[in-house]
TrEMBL record:
Protein name according to UniProt: Transcriptional regulator, TetR family
Keyword field contains Disulfide bond: no
Record carries keyword DNA-binding: yes
Organism for this UniProt entry: Kordiimonas lacus
DNA-binding residue intervals: 48-67
Family annotation (SUPFAM superfamilies): Homeodomain-like (SSF46689), Tetracyclin repressor-like, C-terminal domain (SSF48498)
One of the record's GO molecular function terms: transcription cis-regulatory region binding
Basic and acidic residues: bias regions: 14-26
Amino acid sequence: MSNTAVAHQDAEDENKPARGRPRDVEKNSAIIDAASQLFLENGFDGTSMDEVAKRAGVSKQTVYSHFSSKEQLFADSIHITIEKYFPDQALQGLETHTLEGDLTVVATKFARLLMSQDAMAMHRVLVAAAGRGPALAKIFWEAGPAEMIVKLSAFLKVWVDRGELDIDDLEKAAGRLVSLLKGKLHFEMSIGLFDSVSDDVLKAHVDDVVDCFLQLYRKK
């Protein structure tokens, strides 16, 4: 083959879409999106892998090539929901660089996640499935709240290391922060008193939580 022909072939190869991975990523996302919708609509037991495949526009074999079980798919859908509201990089590049300011930013992100329609719907799914035993709740806990606790613990450690927070047990303190953020609002939403929270109400709630948390843990 001539040098000109080789160069032409290389140019064609560079312009071709990458094989496998981009398409696999698209299918993976489509499957998770479909499963997330179906879990919220029909619950865990009411969702089948056949339905997931149909809504995602892929074959059932393709679904199983990406996810070994419905339980794994459920866990990944929870993880993706958390990433949507609170991505891994959310703790980086906070702009205030004060304890109260950064805590307010982080608490607001978590509050928006906890009060989201997705979170409320998933809460109801778990309550409905409680009679089938703790297996599903354990999957949810490990993929959702436990991950939140890890992220919050990492954030709090930064301010402990800076000498502004006095916390002996980071995991326990992070759990308390989540409990404060849920508070009365989460309970009211979970039983259907209202289905959304205004920005003003959320801000007032977060401000109260931050004030309470700092009274507990700010270094004297």
